[in-house]
Amino acid sequence: MKNNIQQELIVLVSAGLGRAGWLQENREAISLDLPTDKRFGDFTTNIALKLSKELKQPPRVVAGQLVESIREEIEKSGLKDLITQVKVEGAGFINFYLKEDYFYEELRKIITKGKEALKVDLGKGKKVLIEFVSANPTGSLSVAHARQAAVGDCLSNVLSFIGFKVSREYYLNDEGNQINILGRSVQLRLKELKGETIEFPENYYQGDYIKDIAKEAQNKKIKDENLGDFAAGHILKIIKQELDDFGVKFDCWYSQKELAKSGKVEQAFAQLKQKGFLYEQDGALWFKSTAFGDDKDRVIIKSDGSQTYLAPDIAYHQDKFKRGYSWLINLWGPDHHGYINRIKASIEAFGHKKDDLSVVIVQLATIFRNGQEIQMSTRRGQYITLREVLDEVGKDASRFFFLMRRTSSHLDFDLEVAKKQSSENPVYYVQYAHARICSILRGSPVKIKDDLDLSVLKEKEELSLIKKLLEFEATLNICLVTCDPYMLTVYLQELAESFHKFYDLHRVLGQDDALTGARLALIEGTKIVLSCGLELLGIAQPEKM
Fold first, then answer.
1. CB-based contact 526:388 (threshold 8 Å)
2. For residues 34 and 45, what is the distance between their CA atoms, to the nearest angstrom?
3. How far, in Å, CA of 159 to CA of 117, rounded?
4. Counting Cβ atoms within 10 Å, is residue 39 exposed (0-12), middle (13-18) or buried (19+)?
5. What pLDDT, on the 0 to 100 scale, is given for residue 379?
6. Residues 1 and 105: beta-carbon distance below 8 Å
7. Cβ contacts of residue 242 below 8 Å, gap of 6+?
8. What's the rounded Cα separation, in Å, for the pair 360 and 481?
9. Number of other residues whose CB lies within 10 A of the CB of residue 396
10. Which among 148, 65, 55, 136 is positioned nearest to 379, based on CA atoms?
């Protein structure tokens, strides 16, 4: 059996292109996907649709010619005994139909090797740094930060599983104006504690947590000039505990304050100046970002000598590469969308490729309780926090719900649904499938044998479940290509549905030994994949519910 049937089929299509006499560069356009409609084979490629314009022929004509070449290649390949049909269908798709023996053997691999059978080395040890959350230490984490935390942590898990060497990093913005405002906010609360009547400026932090920090600062007799750092340190402890309870841990907490002290910002500027990408104008220092596709050049040092936000960020990203990472992934909120081009310009200025940095914009989340949207205002402290969500629905439901929409889509999080213990709650539905299988396996007097005959699995629901198991790798590949773990939640719900449908129609125990053994093997394989998927999501795999 082939270790990666998709790659083998791509090679086959590529050879077919060569046999048909078409250009070598067209081979890079080959992609192999899973058909959305299972009636149209086990794998499909749209290469004929891509080539039709260039070849000035209808897609179905191109596909017909290519299929003839592919069939000739199959006859001399190792896939001859696996492929039953190659057909042109629809608008010009080329669909591959595989023999059932292939699926039986792939199921056997999962049963015998466990989670190791699900691993595929797509990363080849490439070092990746994923920076996410990076919330200013000025208040508890909001649900927007929570969504970023869930996405970043799960993406890190997936990339590690498929062969990348991943590090998680939190960029700590622990200096600057927001820390100064935080300190002055605490100072005003201290005056209130002494009986003064205070009117808070609109841009100050006004949540009750500021009052708590003020009381602690008063007890510890913190000086006014140190209030900002004291408050930030206090809040950072809260943030770390919240993330820990959410199942999110970072390999590095990177301090902007320490970056400023290190001299790395000045070193980065010196390099850019030497390369001719800095210039002075109107008393300010400018970065020539238009040389790399930005819509305008950017100020990095203002005429008053102060740095813009871009200045330390340029040095920070260069330092990431200096630490040996070859791929950087940043998870940012939607308010940072306009910041992407200038950061990409900066890494290109240092000689890196634009695609060495991937920026994932994680859209906001809206929390609903009893059908009502909860309004949020960070400075006023009027927002629901990660801690509140954790306390109300728990870690597992929180993580799953934050992951179950594309990062590019706004997320509506219904607290009431997340608390339900029924099929309406998707995380409960998936976990229940895992627990249900564990219960069946515990109650079985029949043991799964290594040499069992899986070919007795002939029912439609049995074959559908096996095929769904084998979509796990393709799902992880989608997560890689999109830098978004969302599809893993979709896949696990579909897998759970496929299992429940099979089990509702077919008894596992009480059949003859051959069929019982094969069905036990099928649900054991399902348990392994469900467990692996839930583990990548950072969610428990209960054996009883």
1. no
2. 9
3. 16
4. exposed
5. 46
6. yes
7. 140, 141, 385, 386, 387, 390
8. 12
9. 21
10. 136
Set out the domains of the chain in order of their start, with CATH numbers. Answer: 5-98 (3.30.1360.70), 177-245 (no CATH), 421-537 (1.10.730.10)
pLDDT at 2: 38
- Please answer whether residues 180 and 158 qualify as being in contact, where contact means their C-beta atoms are separated by less than 8 angstroms: no
- Give me the pLDDT at residue 363, please: 97
What angle separates helix 513-537 from helix 395-403, to the nearest 10 degrees?
80
Contact of 22 with 78, CB cutoff 8 Å: no
115-137: burial string, b at 16+ Cβ within 10 Å, e else: eebbebebbeeeebbbbbbbbbb
What does the DSSP assignment read for 151-200? HHHHHHHHHHHTT-EEEEEEEE--SSHHHHHHHHHHHHHHHHHTT-----
Helical (H) or strand (E) element with 131 = strand 127-131
Q: Tell me, what DSSP letter sits at residue 539?
A: -
CA distance linking residue 13 with residue 370, whole number of Å: 54
pLDDT for res 382:
57
Cα 349 from Cα 272, distance rounded (Å): 7
**Buried-state track 217-253, b at ≥16 Cβ within 10 A, e below 16:** beeeebeeeebbbbbbebbbebbbebbeebbbebeee
Determine contact, residues 479/539, Cβ cutoff 8 Å.
no
Run of H or E including 252: strand 252-255
Per-residue model confidence (pLDDT) at position 282: 94
Q: Which two tokens stand for residue 38?
A: 């299972």
Closest CA to 364 of 411, 400, 403: 411
**Interior/surface letters 315-346, b for 16+ CB within 10 angstroms, e for the rest:** bbbbbbbeeebebbbbbbbeeeeebbbbbbbb
Residue 181: is it exposed, middle or buried by C-beta count within 10 angstroms (0-12/13-18/19+)?
Answer: middle
Other Cβ atoms less than 10 A from the Cβ of 78: the count is 11
Contacts 24+ apart (CB under 8 A), 347-352: 347/317, 347/318, 347/321, 348/292, 349/272, 349/275, 349/277, 349/287, 349/288, 349/289, 349/291, 349/292, 350/268, 350/271, 350/272, 350/318, 350/321, 352/321
Residue stretches of the chain with pLDDT short of 70: 1-3, 23-28, 375-382
The predicted pLDDT at position 20 comes to 74
SS3 label, residue 63: helix
Strand partners for 414: 368
Q: What is the rounded CA–CA span in Å between residue 117 and residue 397?
A: 28
CB crowding 473-505: b at 16 or more within 10 Å, else e: bbbbbbbbebbbbbbbbbbbbebbbbbbebbee
Reference 390, options 212, 140, 206; nearest CA is 140
Check if the beta carbon of residue 428 is closer than 8 Å to that of residue 538.
no
- Number of helices followed by number of strands (H, E) in the chain: 20, 14
